[in-house]
């Protein structure tokens, strides 16, 4: 039974470590988004998939251990509650980072969409920043307009 509890603690520690790595990955993703480093974003995507796969394996190990030993003592339960709180905190942090990155991407795409609309509608007065000033004819330049 002690071995099962140790396996569960190890799986929780592994999950927490992987979740921290995911937070770091999301921070790095933000930097790459800001610097428009698309090549690095692709490799980072692969890293995130690897981390998420490892988290799923740790979750599977945790649920297997929990199903095998449903009755835990109070001391062991408190230790697992500490892991649970840390995991919940990291989930919230990951969710916040994901929302920030998605928001940044949406704002950037909206900005580029507006730029494309401005270029696509060139010549249309509704997208001009200022009205085109009319040229005033100068009476002294009439000599250039007459035929010689």
Can you describe this structure?
This protein has helices spanning 2-34, 38-68, 74-120, 142-145. It is mostly helical and 148 residues long. Helix 1 packs antiparallel against helix 2 (38-68). The radius of gyration is 30 Å and the shape is elongated. It starts with a helix and ends with a helix. 7% of the residues are buried. The model has no long low-confidence stretch (mean pLDDT 83).
Alpha-carbon distance between the termini?
111 Å
- Sheet with the most strands, sense and barrel status: none
Strand segment count: 0
Shape: elongated
Rounded to an integer in angstroms, the radius of gyration calculated over CA atoms is 30 Å
Structural class: mainly alpha
Number of helices: 4
Helix content: over 70%
Please give the oligomerization state of what you see.
Answer: single chain
Indicate the mean pLDDT.
83
SSE topology string: HHHH
Taken together, the total number of domains comes to 1
Low confidence ranges: none
Q: State which percent range the strand residues make up.
A: under 5%
């Amino acid at each position: 039974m002690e071995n099962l509890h140790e396996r569960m603690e190890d799986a929780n520690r592994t999950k927490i470590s992987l979740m921290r790595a995911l937070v770091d990955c999301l921070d790095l993703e933000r930097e790459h988004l800001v610097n428009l480093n698309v090549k690095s974003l692709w490799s980072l995507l692969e890293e995130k998939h690897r981390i998420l796969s490892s988290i799923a394996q740790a979750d599977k190990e945790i649920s297997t251990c929990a199903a095998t030993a449903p009755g835990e003592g109070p001391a062991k339960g408190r230790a697992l509650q500490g892991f649970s709180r840390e995991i919940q905190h990291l989930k919230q942090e990951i969710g916040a980072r994901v929302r920030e990155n998605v928001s940044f991407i949406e704002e950037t795409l909206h900005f580029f969409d507006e730029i494309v609309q401005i270029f696509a509608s060139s010549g249309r007065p509704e997208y001009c920043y200022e009205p085109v000033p009319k040229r005033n004819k100068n009476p002294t330049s009439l000599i250039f307009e007459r035929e010689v």
